[in-house]
Write a structure and sequence with these properties.
By secondary structure, the protein is α+β, with helices and mostly antiparallel strands. The chain contains 9 helices and 15 strands. It has a 7-stranded mixed sheet with strand order 4-5-6-10-9-8-7, with helices on both faces. A 5-stranded antiparallel sheet has the order 14-13-12-11-15. A 3-stranded antiparallel sheet has the order 1-3-2. Biotin binds next to helix 5, strand 6, strand 9 and strand 10.
């Protein structure tokens, strides 16, 4: 059975309890504000408890939220956003296969520009190059944003770079950490990956219907699985403290809005310049370049305005990379 998006009533109930955290809210008040009969309130409270919220019942007076949950539900995120289009519509799942798959389906059904799909957990999270994305419950951010840019499908790579720069700004603003960007889309802290971006689209020849920017961020993972440890980390592991996922995600959505508008207004060079300034991989980096044709050693020589990474191979050949993987050689 396909996963169900979080009901609007559950979202509203969480919002009400969070707003009144630590005080007792009366049963009739909760029932009337979320629009359910008072007689069914017990069932709704049970659902919330099953979802992991710690709620204490006080006989004759009402209910009290014992701990503010760090849940990425629409009402808590939207309270942190401005009037931009990204995040006006948010679809939340407690558990879903992949937010990118869900977003592609919504896009096909006509979801509007800026629609966001977010999950507490993914059971089939997807990474680039056919890899899996480790999506531990409640500790990461797994989010997909539907964009409907007035571009041709050829312009999709610049959107990935735009998302990389926006994510870097958001992480910096929310945590004070200073992530690097590895071309094309990996966010690194102390040389290890904390975030990645998977861009997918709904297009036909020459016509772009929708782009889905799927962003995964390892936020509060206390330990990475053994096979990922050498390559991946979390914001918590690098900073020694946990972070509010609500704050990190809302910062990310605000930065995506800002950078998308910048791209529309000033065009590709504005993003390419910012990416080049933000990434230690843009120029002079020694790399092993892995493409479908094979592997070779190279040095980066800059980013072209379309978002392709220019490299000079050790045998003197030059190339602009639009796909593939680069591994730093120290
Ligand atoms: C990568 O670095 O390989 C890209 C990782 C992208 C992961 C995110 S998590 C949200 C969205 N849904 C997915 O299934 N993948 C992306």
């Amino acid at each position: 059975m396909a996963a169900a998006a979080t009901e609007r009533k559950i979202d509203r109930m969480i919002q009400l309890l969070v707003k009144n955290a630590t005080v007792v809210v009366s049963g009739p008040k909760i029932a009337s504000q979320i629009g359910v009969p008072h007689s069914t309130l017990g069932e709704w409270i049970k659902k919330l408890r099953e979802l992991g919220l710690e709620i204490k019942g006080h006989v004759g007076t009402g209910y009290q939220l014992m701990k503010i949950p760090d849940l990425l539900v629409p009402s808590l995120i939207q309270a942190e956003l401005g009037k931009g289009q990204i995040g006006q519509q948010i679809v939340h799942y407690f558990s879903v296969g992949s937010t990118n798959t869900a977003a592609l389906t919504l896009a096909q059904r006509g979801a509007r520009h800026g629609t966001v799909v977010v999950a507490e957990e993914q059971t089939a999270g997807r990474g680039r190059l056919g890899r899996n994305w480790y999506s531990e419950k409640s500790n990461g951010i797994y989010v997909s944003v539907i964009l409907r840019p007035p571009f041709s499908p050829m312009a999709a790579p610049i959107l990935t770079l735009m998302a990389g720069v926006a994510t870097q700004h958001a992480l910096r603003a929310a945590t004070g950490l200073d992530p690097d960007i590895r071309w094309p889309n990996d966010l690194l802290v102390n040389g290890k990956k904390v975030g990645g971006i998977l861009t997918e689209m709904n297009a036909e020849l020459g016509r772009l219907h929708a782009v889905v920017l799927g962003i995964g961020i390892n936020v509060n993972h206390g330990e990475m699985p053994a096979e990922l440890k050498p390559l991946a980390t979390s914001l918590r592991l690098e900073s020694g403290r946990t972070w509010s996922r609500v704050q990190v995600l809302s910062s990310l959505l605000r930065e995506l809005e800002n950078h998308y508008l910048l791209l529309l207004k000033e065009g590709n060079p504005a993003i390419a310049e910012r990416w080049a300034a933000a990434s230690s991989f843009a120029c002079g980096k020694r790399l092993r370049v892995v493409t479908r044709e094979g592997e070779a050693l190279a040095t980066t020589t800059g980013l072209d305005p379309t978002g392709a990474l220019r490299v000079r191979y050790d045998d003197g050949r030059e190339e602009s990379l639009v796909a593939g993987e680069v591994i730093e050689v120290k």
